[in-house]
Amino acid sequence: MAGEVRQLDERKLAVLRAIVQDYVGTEEPVGSKALVERHNLGVSPATVRNDMAALEEEGYIHQPHTSAGRIPTDKGYRLFVDKLAEIKPMSAPERRAIRHFLDGAVDLDDVVARTVRLLAQLTRQVAVVQYPSLTRSTVRHIELVALAPAKVMLVLITNTGRVEQRMVDCPGSVGETVLADLRARINARAAGRRLPEVPGLLEELPALFEQADRPTVSTVLATLFETLAEQNEERIMLAGTANLTRFGHDFPLTIQPVLEALEEQVILLRLLGETADAAMTVRIGRENAYEGLNSTSIVSVGYGSGDESVAKLGVIGPTRMDYPGTMGAVRAVARYVGQILAES
Amino acid sequence: MAGEVRQLDERKLAVLRAIVQDYVGTEEPVGSKALVERHNLGVSPATVRNDMAALEEEGYIHQPHTSAGRIPTDKGYRLFVDKLAEIKPMSAPERRAIRHFLDGAVDLDDVVARTVRLLAQLTRQVAVVQYPSLTRSTVRHIELVALAPAKVMLVLITNTGRVEQRMVDCPGSVGETVLADLRARINARAAGRRLPEVPGLLEELPALFEQADRPTVSTVLATLFETLAEQNEERIMLAGTANLTRFGHDFPLTIQPVLEALEEQVILLRLLGETADAAMTVRIGRENAYEGLNSTSIVSVGYGSGDESVAKLGVIGPTRMDYPGTMGAVRAVARYVGQILAES
DNA sequence: TCTGGCACTCGTACGTTCAGAGTGCCAAGA
DNA sequence: TCTTGGCACTCTGAACGTACGAGTGCCAGA
User: Fold this and answer.
1) Which nucleotides of D are covered by protein (CB under 7 A)?
2) Cα dihedral sign for A14, A20, A23, A29?
3) What is the Cα–Cα distance from A148 to A177, expressed in whole angstroms?
């Protein structure tokens, strides 16, 4: 509302910015006197106190007890992130290091593993990287292998290098020629297409086969469609949990629910899922749906091999985090991973 | 030495056992009076005190400060585990629950995932499960797929259900007939054999092909051998890190190195590697080579589809843990996973 | 060899005090 | 109307002293 904006003139915003920066640095409530000393605001502590009172009135900061300094609230951080901070770009050496570190990767697993460790190191927080999602990728190749007369292995390879395999139990024994035929037809139609499109493209395939082979063909296709649609197989990689120890003073209480959340891939996937595809998303404290993460913030962004994002990655840390730096690291890493994926 | 054994008569051992049990339960140093009250030792506190003094002299227990009770040392736990405790068998309902929980698994990933969560839940500690190792498994099938004229995908499927795939860049384009021939010959010789044997069995294969195809054949075989030998690909799954919060009072200090160790698969693999194949191994406190785990104990055991173990699993917790219960759970879970693997 | 008694040690909990940081408010000045 | 210096007030945290109690070690007696 206009009312709120009117209340917050330039200087009050500067005060809020200073409070956030100091608190993130020192981890201690910041008072008016220290504030004017560390930042040259050009006004007296008394003036700052008045501003602080106003900021508290509006709910941007809060004091733990009467005779203490102020701490930003979730709302305060939100304003800081939205209006007062700029994403801090990585320095040239940092960019080189990122590039260099990721370039050594040999396969998709390795890319993801390196990415997540890198992100954890750069931000000194917990990093999360989602494997390139099946649904956004395209088919590179689909392979069928007869393992036994009535047992076929189905292998799906995507453009991002991801490989999924499934066993198919067929209703009857499967001839090698039928299998070869099926393989050829599937690949002719599906190669290069996005995964969700594929079922539509293969719908009439059984009709092209002889009556006797149709049950087999249908079974194989059914398994393929299942694999394509499988959302559960979305995987995630984690790193940097040891950084949780730098969380806060009231330690075990804060950290336990976080560790629990981190073990639940479902929860993490849902959190990342809330990320807007292109733009960077920052969820602060209670903005997180999952209450175990109420005192953490999540910075996440999509990454992809082209202009489109195929998966998400991000960082989880205390609400009291260095947002500009974290956002810079997340953005830079996402960008480079995208490039790596595009190249391979 | 005989000297040490002579020092420790029946009652002293009973006292040590009681101290371990109480301390594990209460997490607090245990004194002579409380001891005689909780266990009916049939002697007075004063007698117990004398025994305690002897036990301390021998290095089995230790008191944090003059007017405190006693705490078992690593050496004390060692004696307890070796001589004083029996593995506590799971109750019938527990066994049923384990069975039921594991039976639902659909593939190898799922088996491992369920196992590790189950173990974490049962023991309320951090559980570690190693994927069935490649080197101990046998070949079920090896598949070659032409993806491009000079690009072949190699897929290795083991009897434990594990699947490894590799891309092979061939020196020249590969004919489909050559590939089919190679595939057939490889499988004829390798199927059912243990992985380390395979290279020896395929050694003369290139000689059976025409001069022109030999480089390709050799390249494919080289990649296959590499895959077979690959020790790095040993994977591990973790669960129950949230249980670390129940570790102790001096929290952040103890937990951080543990979290760091848990992130290093190499370290975990080495730890599990020290497990004797069949027998259960217990490493207590400083017995662990890795110093970050100096205040933890590791209970591990091999598991396998037959009588031979193909991988290890275990539990990591504070030295102050319920050894009989933990060992019982580890043994039971290992046994059932073995059965599941054998069935599939 | 065991037991009861006793003096001793030492850590913890508790109450008190004190200094310092930080605030809110007010009246004066720009 | 906004800013500033001054002042009284509040509250936390550290420091200190005390009392309590748990637990021990030792000794003399059964």
Assistant:
1) 3-6, 9-12, 21-27
2) positive
3) 15
Rounded CA separation A130/A236 (Å): 4
Measured CA to C1', the nucleotide nearest B42 is C2
Residues engaging strand C (CB under 7 angstroms): A 29-34, 45-46, 49, 52-53, 56, 63, 66-70; B 11, 42-44, 46-47, 50, 65-68
Task: Please give the mean pLDDT across all residues of chain A.
Answer: 88
Average pLDDT over residues B6-17: 80
**pLDDT at B164 (0 to 100):** 81
| Pairwise CA distance, residues B112 & B128, whole Å | 10
Tell me how close the Cα of B17 comes to any Cα of chain A, in angstroms.
30
* pTM recorded for the entire structure: 0.83
What is the tens place of the pLDDT at every residue in A88-132? 999 999 999 999 999 988 778 889 999 999 999 999 999 999 998
Long-range contact pairs involving A75-79 (C-beta distance under 8 Å, separation at least 24): A76/A16, A76/A19, A76/A20, A77/A20, A77/A284, A77/A285, A77/A297, A77/A319, A77/A323, A78/A284, A78/A287, A79/A13, A79/A16
Q: How many CB atoms lie within 10 A of CB B65?
A: 6
Please tell me which residue lies nearest to nucleotide C11, judged from CA to C1': B67
Q: Which residues of B touch A242 (CB under 8 A)?
A: 256, 259-260, 263
Classify burial at A83, counting beta carbons within 10 Å of its beta carbon; exposed 0-12, middle 13-18, buried 19 or more. exposed
Task: Give the DSSP letter of residue A327.
Answer: H
In whole angstroms, what is the distance from residue B330 CA to residue B333 CA? 5
Three-class secondary structure assignment of B256-320: HHHHHHHHCHHHHHHHHHCCCCCCCEEEEHHHCCCHHHCCEEEEEEEECCCCCCCEEEEEEEECC
Q: How far apart are CA B313 and CA B113, in angstroms?
A: 12
Instruction: Determine if strand D comes within 7 Å of the CB of A7.
Output: no
Q: Which nucleotide is nearest to A45 (CA to C1')?
A: D4
Answer whether B143 sits within 8 Å of A145, measured CB to CB.
yes
Give contacts of B125 with chain A, Cβ < 8 Å.
none
Residue of B107, B141, B256 lying closest to A242 (CB–CB): B256
Show residues of chain B in contact with A155, CB under 8 Å.
143, 145, 153, 155, 165
